[in-house]
Specification:
Layout (H helix, E strand, L loop, with lengths): L4 H4 L2 E3 H9 L13 H19 L11 E4 L20 E4 L1 E3 H10 L26 H19 L5 H15 L7 H10 L10
Antiparallel strand pairs: 1-4, 2-3
């Protein structure tokens, strides 16, 4: 994959953000080329973003957002307040960090799978693997094993531990991170808990 500036720039303006969320190509300049459905989605996302700015669930990079009148509306009476925003009459000026849009979408209940890749800071691009240093991975395994031992006591049977873990997930309403067979296999690979000497 060739490195391109759009892959590393973390800032998006208001219109880019709304178009990405509406599923519209950001290269499309004119709204005249959009279908009625696309225009409707774009207006809905513009409005949702403005409401998120108003209720402060989505922060702009510099804490500033303002509206300008479209030239079609005529007259410059100064910027109207954000609460008067009308996507068909006003242009919005704001800049966001990709990660802030991602976090906003997560807080309003959008699953990571539904967040467009342009904002999904948590996902690794397909085909790219993140290498974890072996010593760090070993430390993670020791932490996980210790936490499991604290919660469930020392278990010699990894699949019994997987069953207990999955039961607790169900009781707490937590989605299971993996199946019984996957968890049992992973628990088998964890190092033994190291006992500290008591004073």
């Amino acid at each position: 994959m060739a490195l391109r500036p759009k892959n590393i720039i973390q800032l998006l303006n208001f219109e880019e953000t709304a178009r990405i969320l509406a599923g519209i190509d950001t290269k499309t300049v004119s709204n005249a080329s959009l279908s009625a459905d696309e225009l409707s989605r774009l207006y809905e996302w513009r409005t949702a973003i403005v409401y998120a700015i108003i209720d402060r669930s989505l922060q702009t990079t510099d804490g500033v957002a303002w509206i300008t009148q479209n030239m079609i509306c005529g007259g410059d009476l100064g910027p109207p307040p954000l609460r008067n925003y009308d996507p068909s009459r006003h242009e919005m000026n704001a800049i966001f960090l990709r990660k802030d849009v991602f976090h906003w979408l997560k807080t309003v209940g959008v699953s990571e799978a539904d967040i467009p890749d342009a904002f999904n800071i948590a996902s690794t691009p397909k085909g790219d693997e993140v290498d974890v240093h072996p010593r760090r991975e070993e430390t993670y395994h020791r932490i996980i094993k210790s936490l499991l031992a604290l919660q469930y006591g020392e278990q010699t049977e990894p699949y019994a531990l997987a069953d207990e873990f999955l039961d607790d997930c169900r009781k707490q309403g937590i989605r299971a991170p993996a199946s019984r067979s996957t968890l049992g296999g992973l628990f088998t690979q964890l190092p033994p808990v190291q006992k500290a000497e008591l004073d």
